[in-house]
Design goal:
Layout (H helix, E strand, L loop, with lengths): L1 H30 L1 H4 L3 H44 L6 E2 L2 E8 L10 E8 L2 E9 L7 H17 L3 H22 L10 E8 L4 E7 L5 E4 L2 E4 L21 E5 L5 E5 L16 H8 L7 H16 L7 E8 L30
Helix pairs in contact: 1-3, 4-5, 6-7
Length: about 350
C-alpha cells in the first residue's frame, strides 16, 4: 500500500510537468496582451517565453531518459551479479582472484563468464566468452553457467561436462530463435575452456576456441598448452569423443591465469596489441606473488595501454596452488578423504 502511494506522485509529476509547460505557453500566447503586440520588445519577450518552455521540456525528457537508463543498468548489473557471482578467495586449497571489465562504457554487463567449483572429482573451472557483449549476452551466459554449475557435480568425466554445456547452449539458441524470430542466432557461439585440477595438482583441459591460459612457475611464464583447440560451441558439432588433454601439474606455488581474448586484443592509440605475457613477466617479479597482485597489475597495464577505451570485454581468473603436502597416517588400503574446501566470505570480483 505504501509502495503504491509512493509511486503515484512520481507518475503524476512525469505527466504533469510537460502538461504545465505546454499550458503555460498556450496561455501566454492566447491570453497575454503582450503576445498580441508586434513590437520588437514584445517579440523578444515572446521568444524568451517559448525558449524557456522548450528548454524545460527538453531537460525534463532528458532527466526521464537518464533515470530510465540508470534503472536499466542497475537491473542488468544486479542480474549479472547473480550470474557471475563473486568467487571465494580460497577453494579447496587454491587461492582465487577474478574480475571482469565490460566494454560498454558505464556498464557492468559483459559477455564473459567464469566459475570455479570444488567437487568430488577435483576443482573444476570454466572460462568462456560469448559472441558480443552487453545485455544481449546475458541470456547465453546464464544458459552456459547454469549448465556448468550442475554438470560439474553430476558428471565424473570432463568431456561429459562439455557435452552438457553444448546441449544447454543449443537449447537456449532454439528458444531464443522461437521467441525472437527477427534476431539472427545462426552465428552465435561461445568459446569455452574447461579445467580440472586434481588433489595431486594434475591438470586436464578441454578447449573449444578459447585462448590457452598461462602457467606461472617461479619467474617463468608459459602457455599451459600449445595444441589447437576445438571449434567454439554453437558453430560446429562436437567430436564423437572429445578427449581431455593432460596439461601437467599445478605445483604448490604455481599459478594459472585464465583470460578472455579481449585482453590480448586490446590496442593502444597506435594499433599495437597488448602483450599479456609481458605483463605477467612483470607481475611475477614482485614478491610475494598473489592472485590479487597479478590481477591488479594486469588490469592496470591494460587500462594504461588502451587509455580506458578497450573495444571488447575483459575477464581474468587466477588460480594459485597454495596446498601443502600432508603426510597421511592412515594404514595402507584405507579410503582417503579429500580435504574440504575452505571459503572466505569476501568476494574476489574486484580490482
Amino acid at each position: 500500500m505504501f509502495r503504491f502511494m509512493a509511486r503515484v506522485p512520481r507518475k503524476v509529476l512525469a505527466l504533469g510537468l510537460p502538461t504545465a509547460w505546454g499550458a503555460t505557453a498556450i496561455t501566454y500566447k492566447l491570453a497575454c496582451p503582450l503576445a498580441q503586440q508586434d513590437s520588437l520588445g514584445a517579440r523578444v519577450v515572446t521568444s524568451a517565453v517559448f525558449f524557456a518552455v522548450g528548454t524545460g521540456l527538453i531537460l525534463h525528457v532528458r532527466q526521464a531518459l537518464v533515470r530510465e537508463l540508470r534503472q536499466v543498468r542497475e537491473v542488468a548489473g544486479a542480474a549479472q551479479s547473480v550470474l557471475l557471482r563473486p568467487l571465494p578467495s580460497r577453494i579447496d586449497g587454491l587461492n582465487v582472484a577474478a574480475a571482469q571489465l565490460s566494454a560498454d562504457r558505464g556498464a557492468r554487463v559483459g559477455g564473459d563468464l567464469y566459475e570455479v567449483i570444488a567437487t568430488e572429482h577435483g576443482v573444476r573451472a570454466v572460462m568462456g566468452d560469448v559472441r558480443g557483449h552487453g545485455i544481449a549476452a546475458l541470456g547465453t551466459v546464464a544458459a552456459v553457467l547454469g549448465s556448468f554449475r550442475e554438470a560439474v557435480h553430476d558428471e565424473p568425466d570432463l568431456d561429459r561436462v562439455l557435452r552438457r554445456l553444448d546441449r544447454a547452449l543449443a537449447r537456449h539458441l532454439r528458444e531464443r530463435s522461437r521467441d525472437e524470430p527477427d534476431t539472427p542466432v545462426a552465428e552465435e557461439f561461445v568459446t569455452v575452456l574447461l579445467l580440472e585440477i586434481g588433489r595431486d595438482g594434475e591438470i586436464s583441459a578441454l578447449n573449444c576456441g578459447h585462448p590457452w591460459p598461462y602457467l606461472l612457475s617461479g619467474t617463468t611464464v608459459e602457455p599451459l598448452a600449445r595444441t589447437d583447440p576445438l571449434p567454439p560451441l554453437g558453430l560446429f558439432p562436437l567430436p564423437p569423443e572429445p578427449t581431455p588433454l593432460p596439461c601437467g601439474s599445478l605445483l604448490p606455488g604455481d599459478s594459472l591465469v585464465l583470460y578472455t581474448d579481449g585482453v590480448e586484443d586490446a590496442r593502444d592509440a597506435r594499433g599495437r596489441f597488448f602483450s599479456l605475457q609481458a605483463a605477467l613477466v612483470e607481475a611475477v617479479r614482485h614478491h610475494p606473488i598473489t592472485p590479487q597482485t597479478i590481477l591488479r597489475t594486469v588490469f592496470t597495464a591494460v587500462l594504461r595501454h588502451t587509455r580506458g577505451r578497450q573495444a571488447d570485454d575483459i575477464a581474468l581468473l587466477i588460480l594459485r596452488n597454495d596446498r601443502t603436502h600432508v603426510q597421511c597416517s592412515a594404514p595402507i588400503g584405507a579410503r582417503g578423504t579429500a580435504r574440504p574446501a575452505t571459503h572466505d566470505p569476501q568476494p574476489t570480483n574486484h580490482l
